[in-house]
User: What shape does this take?
Amino acid sequence: MNITTIKDASNDENGLVSMISVSGGGGHGMAEEVALKKGPWTTAEDAILVDYVTNHGEGNWNAVQRNTWLARCGKSCRLRWANHLRPNLKKCSFSHDEEKLIVLFHSKFGNKWARMAALLPGRTDNEIKNYWNTRVKRHHRQGLPLYLDVHDQPTTPTTPSLCVTPTGSNTNTNTITNFDFLHQNHHHDQHHDMFKSSPVLYPAVLESEHHHHSPISPRAQPSHRSPLSSPPSYSPHYFMDPTPSNSNPQLSSLSFTFQKPTPVPSTPLRFKRYRSYPNFSLYHLPSITPYSTSAPPDQIADLDAFKFPQPNNSSFSPQYFQTPVLDYERMVSPSNFVFSSKLEHPSNQFSQPQLQPEVKHHDREFNDPTFQTSSGLLGDLLFDAQALASGQNSKKRNYFSLNQGNDVFDGYQNFEDCPLTSTYWFSTSGVNPKDEASDLSKCMNEDMSKFLTVMPSTMQGTDRNNNSEAEVSNVQSSSVTTDDNFGLDMKPIASLFPLSNATNHGENQGYYYYWDNLPGLC
DNA sequence: AAGCGCAGCAACCGCCACGCC
DNA sequence: CGGCGTGGCGGTTGCTGCGCT
Assistant: This one.
């Protein structure tokens, strides 16, 4: 059937009517004129669509037009249903927490609105997209970085860290995470990301090496309609700004508790285009990256686009990399250090979440690397990784000490000193711990494993001294991402989940770390 | 009061993945 | 295996309301 728009004309309502020629598949030249309405939906149309979907279920959207008098194309029906009529849609503005999550997700997924929507119950990809686009415009106009605040000076933490603190409080609430976006300092990353994540360019920001704070003009102040408009606490500008917030516990961390969405059989989450993320759910945070020693060669054959230069004298060794097994086409090869060339366009802008407990930040400054790259996102990754490899880094880096109760977990290098509660595991020994943890790995979900796909290059660091190796060990590492820019720093993550001596299989023999006993997992 | 800019939102469009034949 | 229909996704556009000048 061929549908050809013949004309558009204003109809007697708000929308337009597209007169289309619908040619039958028989090719007999029979053509019936069907006027498909465009523009805003009326309540009557909504009622028809709701009734139809109620009786027939979702899908087969073109049948709606055929079986009702609704003069809307299938796409329009689907969109209307998905964005406005389906059950469990939230109609309210984004909450502060949701906004933060969107920022986080965008830093990880890029413009994958549907995936974000899948993680934000009751939200649609369209509204997330709209929110983000508005944010982009606003930040562009104000000269603010998308992920970082212009206040974010080198004295602020650079350490990406994930705090996943299950805090489920009742049986109907699963948990999740404490994401803290405040502690980011990937300036050049942010620039890359801004260019990658949006067609809009940001010359003003790029030109600003110092990220001067751009006062928001009265006119630029969000209107009352904006969910971002209630300064200061409700402004992304504010919450992304760690400088003042450090004195404000409410802004220095954030705990999210999510209502587990009620399954809607008729509206399954679909990941048609992202089948490698079929089960990603925050409710599963954190889960773990299983170990794999290798991937089928044919699966990694096309990953040669970005090979990592490996310094010979570095403690940085491929053996410290382990590979998530679940998605071979999105991996860091442990054998040849190959990064997938299928990076999605945004973001090495790691707006890293952080742990809920109080986190103190300290600066560490490192030397300048010589490694340069022009590849933007990947360049950042390589840049960071190279810096790690060489023990150098031009950026100011930070580490943190974590106060959790009476315990203080200081830095990243003392895993074995931390009291163990449970687990992340990996190996630097070549011994495949996968089998040992097969049960555990069953609980892992793929996406979170991506979150935890990292460069544990410094985890050899049992050295607490200030020699060069220790220095490397203290570098927070770069977040190396695979395809989906899921890359978190292992050390901060691991630091946040103290480990056991029992899991230390000895220096140079690898460590197996475990997170377990975390409520709400698996 | 009018014009303008902005934010928010809804909807459309093109591309493309997928399943079926 | 290729064509076709369907539906999902991301990019984009247009409309509306509000606040400011």
User: Anything to note?
Assistant: The beta strands of chain A are 2-10, 16-23, 31-38, 173-174, 258-259, 306-307, 338-339, 359-365, 396-404, 407-410. Residues 1, 14, 25, 39-40, 59-62, 74-75, 78, 82, 111-114, 125, 129, 133, 199, 218-219, 221, 223-225, 270, 272-273 of chain A lie near DNA strand C (CB under 10 Å from a C1'). Chain A has a mean pLDDT of 42. Chain A has three domains: 2-85, 96-259, 282-503.
